[in-house]
Amino acid sequence: MFPKTTNFFCRHGRPFTYFPSQANSCCVAKDNNRSAFTKYSTGDKAWEEHSEMWMSTLARFTRPVFQRSPYPVVCKAMKACCRIELPAPSFYMTPVHFRRHQTLGSASMPVAAHSMRHVRALEEERLMAVEWEDGGQSLYPFTWLRDNCQCPRCTLQSAEARLLLMADLDIHTGMDSVEVTKDGKVSIVWPDQHMSVFDAEWLKKRCFSDAARQVMQEELFLNERYYWDATLSIPQADFQEVLHDDGAALAWLLALRRVGIVHLKGAPAEQGQVARLAERIGYLRLTFYGHTWQVQDKSMANNVAYTSGKLSLHTDYPALHFAPGVQFLHCINQAKEGGESEVVDGFHMAEQLQREDPEAFRTLTSLRVDFTDTGTDYCDFMLHSKNHIIDVDSEGKVTKINYNNATRDSVLDLPLHQVQPFYRALRAYVDIMNRPENVVTYTMKPGDIVTFDNWRLLHGRKSYISRPDRLRHLEGAYLDWDEVMSRLRIVRRNVHGDA
Predict the structure, then answer these.
(1) How far apart are CA 161 and CA 45, in angstroms?
(2) How big is the CA angle at 215 (ends 214 and 219), to the nearest 5 degrees?
(3) Model's pTM, two decimal places?
(4) What is the C-alpha to C-alpha distance for residues 288 and 379, in angstroms, rounded to an integer?
(5) Could you report the per-residue pLDDT of 186-237, keeping only the tens digit for each?
(6) Gyration radius of the chain over CA positions
(7) Is the separation of the CB atoms in 239 and 61 below 8 Å?
(8) What contacts 51, CB < 8 A, 6 or more positions away?
């Protein structure tokens, strides 16, 4: 039932070890720096239902485990519309906490089927009120309901696409009647006598309360991240399992989204494997360096990566206005000496910068910096872009890092009085990234594929020495997050169904 003893990372990044016990039908988790243990019983229903698919080390990053700290947050979101009294889980991983204080998969908790007690139209407010059997209430605007009528005239079900034209939508519509049908659905008759019928579960998922919307957005986009430092034990998965098993692929993609980096082990040490892996997702991102590219020493190199010198921490391709979201790097041959890889959590570093130097954070999120890349590879190219070093959304949350010192242009389109503050801010961010306690260092072996979030992680490499009979050789490829998230949702549906 339980996997072999494995290492994990826990609160504050401390190493964490799992000790399975077949005889006692339990699994014990120990914080390696303390004497804290947590015990799980095989009798727990939630553990039994999913234990088979969570047998690898990687899976433990993505298994929907409940913690004492985030669990009330999830309950609050679910109760916002329906006041469901969710029972406390019968197992905990109390020593395990992440910076965002949320467990992987917690926003996708299974919810019991919902049924409606009563429905009525609030004409003055132009809202439909649904009272649920558990006592909760949800409100839905008339216009939104008419816009999303699910009948064959208004929605092409085979494509889940709207047929109703905006020009034909009465945005001030009222309701002639609304009722709960015998089979538990909502039936609406509109003033033009068009009828719409809505399923209770469909409505429930689209509740307009703040908490319910937050849960839905997290389920759709998985935007929460688990921040880490140098003590991270990079999650691992088996290359062949990811290619052929949806459960393994789901675990890989969830960890890639949440943690930002996953090592795949066991790939053949020959070219073509990143393309095979990309086919598991959908398709590769074509760039000026080709569908795939070979990281080797090259004379007259058109990229600093094609030299044996040290590569400072960077994201790839900020010279594009829309840089690739995900990167694969496959080790075919390693250097005789040196060549160790380095990565940092750019989002975590940005958070530290905001806390330690708010002015520098404001500078890097507000000033646009020029990047350039010129040369010949797949075809001739002469790229120029303007990007913030740190992108944030409307709520101030970090969404993307754009930084490559090699391709940062000598053109700096800033007023004179902003030049020195820019350099001071950028140096402050780089200094935080280069702190030893923030950098994870690892050595790739032939057959290893590192997959990582290029919008979040900054990666680098120490200098190396090759020998003529074994030149260092990595093959790389890019994908975009849209394709990766699409595949994640599909394999999640394959594994868990529509729940």
Answers:
(1) 38
(2) 115
(3) 0.80
(4) 6
(5) 999 999 999 999 999 999 999 999 999 999 999 999 999 999 999 999 999 9
(6) 26
(7) no
(8) 1, 2, 42
Nearest residue to 46 via CA among 83, 103, 104, 88: 88
Tokens of 351: 């958070």
Long-range residue pairs from 395-399, CB within 8 A, at least 24 positions apart, any chain: 398/346, 398/347, 398/350, 398/351, 399/455
**What are the tens digits of pLDDT across the range 112-134?**
467 999 999 999 999 999 999 99
pLDDT for residue 66 is more than 60: no
Taking a C-beta distance cutoff of 8 angstroms, is the pair 318, 404 a contact? yes
Joined together, the tokens standing for residue 402 give 């754009």
CB neighbour list of residue 351: distance below 8 Å, 6 or more residues apart: 99, 227, 398
Cα–Cα distance for residue pair 180/200, rounded to 1 Å: 10
The closest of 290, 252, 288 to 271, measured between CA atoms, is 290
Integer angstrom CA distances of residue 51 from 89, 241, 244, 275: 16, 16, 19, 31
pLDDT of residue 93: 25
Q: What is the pLDDT of residue 499?
A: 58
Q: Is the pLDDT of residue 244 over 70?
A: yes
At 113 the pLDDT is 67
Contacts with 86 (C-beta within 8 Å, 6 or more apart), sequence order: 74, 75, 78, 79, 109
Token digits for 203?
């409505």
